[in-house]
Amino acid sequence: MKIWQVILFLLFLSVDLFAVHNGYPARSITKPLILVSLIIFFVINLKGKVKDNSLMMAGLGFALLGDVFLLGDSTTHFIFGLSSFLIMQIIYSLVFFKEKAIGVHQRKWQVLPVLLVTMLFVGYIVPHAGDLSVAVIIYALTIMMMLVFAILRWKVAGYWWVVAGACAFMFSDALLSANKFDGPISNAGIGVMLSYGLAQLMICHGYLRGRTKV
Known about the structure:
By secondary structure, the protein is mainly α. The chain is 79% helix and 0% strand.
């Protein structure tokens, strides 16, 4: 992605963080604008190859849908938002899997910590999740799969951008879950959106570097 696109994206993200901090109702505009701007910049950088990258576009579309659902405070909104991001993570996993360069046995030292962190998180959050325990477990395993497949893209251009983005995504979702199920965490909303926005930016930038050398 071009520098001016990154700057604009970070500006939109900063405006939303300001709205989160001050509790402004404008979030119904500022939050979706983050992914809308990223999708526009993503399409621009594809240089007419949108059809060839339709799977990644679908993932971004479900991410946008998840953002909209999570604007609501009800359990129903949370479930639909969770489902949208679950689909997004499955799509991202498929995209990364298609680009994997080596077998898991050759990157065991990187994959095993991901498995350990996931198990520790599930063990911590599930007792607090109540009726949503099964959904939380499935979601955690899915995001773990996304990160593992991101790691297995070894030697693909933009590799570390995608891995860093997947890690940031895992952190964002962990913070979101802890804040929802284990009591309020100070400034959790800002932490969630900052790590989530940067995660999407890094994943898209890394993906584009692998496809278009930008």
